[in-house]
Amino acid sequence: MFKKIVSVAFTCSFLFSCQQAAEDVTKRDAAKVEEITASEVSIMPKKNSSAKAESEQISFTATIKYMNLEGGFFGLVSKEGKHWLPLNLEKEFQKDGAVIKVTGKAVMGLITIQQWGTPFSITDIELITAASKAPENKNLQ
Q: Signal sequence: where (predicted)?
């Protein structure tokens, strides 16, 4: 019986010391966090969960591509090969294969079901070359 009591006492003291060590580490880490000065905090980028357009407008020439994924959508492929997901492509420009000059802003932080390209809000669009082929999806005609 004496052995059991000593064993339980030893186990309890061991567990208590482990808990105390964990609390000491937590307090030490918290103290390190408090050491960050205000100037260091201002350098850190602010995370914003809401989507917003970049302030700088960009223009590029792109080919409109119909993508038969996630219910179908139109994407823009720039001459450099970058993929853009237009958020407000007018119906008259929704033609697979058309070449356009587009101006607008990238929308950062937006998650789409398409998971393709950088979301892009169009402010100006100009048709350069009309589509030369019929759409692959019969619903688009």
A: 1-21
66: its two tokens: 């119909």
Place of tokens 């966090």: 33
Residue with tokens 């038969």: 68
Contact indicator for 64, 93 with CB cutoff of 8 Å = yes
In degrees and rounded to multiples of 5, residue 98 shows phi and psi of: -70, 145
**What is the token pair recorded at 61?**
């020439």
pTM: 0.57
29 and 58 co-located in one domain: no
User: Which SS3 state, helix, strand or coil, does residue 72 take?
Assistant: coil
Higher pLDDT, 27 or 118: 118
For residue 20, being part of any structural domain is answered with yes
Q: Are 138 and 68 in contact (CB under 8 A)?
A: no
Domain match, 75 and 124 both: yes
